[in-house]
Amino acid sequence: MIRKISLVLLLVVFLFAGVVLAADNDNDANHSKGEGKAEHKTVKVKLETNMGDIILELDADKAPITVENFLRYTNEKFYDGVIFHRVIKGFMIQGGGFEASMKRKETHEPIKNEASNGLKNDRGTISMARTSNPDSATAQFFINHKNNNSLNYVKGRSPGYAVFGKVIKGIDVVDKIATTKTRTYKGMRDVPVEPVIIKKATVIKDTEKEEEKK
């Protein structure tokens, strides 16, 4: 009798182990398909300039405050008609704050610096411009023309400049802008002789994203 009970218990153990193993395998299969993983939040913005279009992919996971700020200005049409007012080949192109007449545009309140988010100021990335105060960025931004390690966040040493996205199309336009002839104009250096104008900045909708893939 005892022997029969032992055999039954042993059989139950084997069956239970088989169920657990099967469940584990199912979980592995689900993980391999990417199920259960949160989708990385990005949004695309198109900058239509008089030298060509630049499409940006903004990282809302790594830089939520900065992306929300940039989208706020974009949706308010703030960037329509502003210029890239500071251009330095082999460094960066900066815009988002002045009209072609070099009139400064009024902005919203400054935002928190998110430079410690792990994103680097590599070629083709977009970052927020600011003053010596780390938390002073408003509307102005720049696109890195090369890897600018000196602009990265270093704990205890440098507050850095907050990267919040990257160019995914139109890096050739960035290169073209970066090589434009500049001058000192109205007290500012490195201003393009021929204005580089952002004619329009728009958030790319889902239907447009599908078109971009084609």
CATH homologous superfamily caption of the largest domain: Cyclophilin-like
CATH class of the largest domain: Mainly Beta
CATH architecture of the largest domain: Beta Barrel
Rounded mean pLDDT is 86
Q: Tell me the Rg in angstroms.
A: 26 Å
Order of helices and strands: HEEHEEEEEHEEEH
Beta-strand percent range: 25-35%
Shape: globular
Unreliable residue runs: 4-34
Compute the number of structural domains: 2
Please identify the structural class as seen in this structure. alpha+beta
What does the model show?
It is a single chain. The protein has 214 residues and is α+β, with helices and mostly antiparallel strands. The chain has 2 domains: 1-37; 42-205, Cyclophilin (Beta Barrel). The chain has helices at 2-32, 64-75, 171-178, 206-213; strands at 42-49, 52-59, 82-88, 92-99, 125-128, 141-144, 163-169, 182-185, 188-192, 198-203. The strands form 2 sheets. An 8-stranded antiparallel β-sheet has the order 3-4-6-5-7-2-1-10. Strands 8-9 form a two-stranded antiparallel ribbon. Strand 1 and strand 2 (52-59) form a beta hairpin. It is globular and about 45 Å long.
Secondary structure elements and pairings:
Layout: H1 2-32, E1 42-49, E2 52-59, H2 64-75, E3 82-88, E4 92-99, E5 125-128, E6 141-144, E7 163-169, H3 171-178, E8 182-185, E9 188-192, E10 198-203, H4 206-213
Antiparallel strand pairs: 1-2, 1-10, 2-7, 3-4, 4-6, 5-6, 5-7, 8-9
